[in-house]
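Propose amino acids for all 250 sites.
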């Protein structure tokens, strides 16, 4: 799956998907409140594992409901292939909300980092296994390129070894993905196992497979400082209400 996702990103780069002219303002950071974790909600119309989640939905309307529900930040998919995301969706949402936004994509090329800046993204996603697997090179340079362009990095890991390596980078946030990107299996125990007995200096976001306030309470207990939730919100009827309920457990 990872190989397919990387190929898709290269196809999108070659097709000019990330050639964006624009100068939206970025540079926001997530506001952490004492004793409370942060909820990042994802505008996700489709995914490789689920297919369409909310076909034909309006990204701006979804984003507005999420913000009304209290989301601390939004993640917006920009990858067209398999995710049905697009930089245009990101730009529309960017113009309509003022919370921090993450450009969610499989980033393998400098053109995508430049696009993050042009779109006014506050954070971009980098995936440790993309670099460890040799699908892209020199992750530290990507993090630096982002910083030079005013874009922070959410660095995603899935194993304890990746987590260790991520802690020795300049990434601004570390995300533990509960989804295995090769098998697509989800296990919330991934976050618990990686954080067990660890005193981490980084803020850790638990990502994927979170469906309820009870899941959030469980992962907060494990030491996560934030949560990234897509399908668990996008698949239901009441986006604002689901976000509000999840926020109550943060
Ligand atoms: O969501 C997928 O099926 C997927 C498959 C392969 C690579 C990445 C994938 N998702 C990207 C994400 O990081 C998730 O959208 C995000 O963590 C939210 O996950 P969820 O709450 O489970 O929708």
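Proposal:
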């Amino acid at each position: 799956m990872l190989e397919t996702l990387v190929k898709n990103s290269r196809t999108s780069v070659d097709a000019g998907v990330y050639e964006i002219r624009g100068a939206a303002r970025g540079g926001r950071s997530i506001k952490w409140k004492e004793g409370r974790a942060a909820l990042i909600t994802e505008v996700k119309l489709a995914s490789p594992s689920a297919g369409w989640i909310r076909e034909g939905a309006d990204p701006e309307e979804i984003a507005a409901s999420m913000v009304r529900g209290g989301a601390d930040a939004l993640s917006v998919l920009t990858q067209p292939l398999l995710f049905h995301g697009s930089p245009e969706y990101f730009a529309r949402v960017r113009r309509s909300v003022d919370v921090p936004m993450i450009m969610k994509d499989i980033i393998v090329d400098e053109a995508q980092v430049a696009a993050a800046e042009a779109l006014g993204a506050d954070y971009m996603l980098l995936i440790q296994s993309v670099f460890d697997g040799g699908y892209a090179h020199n992750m530290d340079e990507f993090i630096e390129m982002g910083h030079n362009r005013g874009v922070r990095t959410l660095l995603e890991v899935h194993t304890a070894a990746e987590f260790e390596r991520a802690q020795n980078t300049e990434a601004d946030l570390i995300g533990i993905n509960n989804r295995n990107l090769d098998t697509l299996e989800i296990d919330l125990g991934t976050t618990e196992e990686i954080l067990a007995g660890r005193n981490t200096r980084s803020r850790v976001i638990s990502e994927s497979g979170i469906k309820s306030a009870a899941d959030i309470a469980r992962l907060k207990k494990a030491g996560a400082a934030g949560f990234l939730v897509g399908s668990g919100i996008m698949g239901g009827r009441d986006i604002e209400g689901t976000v509000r309920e999840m926020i109550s457990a943060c």
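The pocket of LARABZUK is lined by residues 1, 5, 42, 44, 47-49, 177, 179, 181, 184, 207-210, 228-232 (CB under 6 Å). The chain has eleven helices and ten strands.
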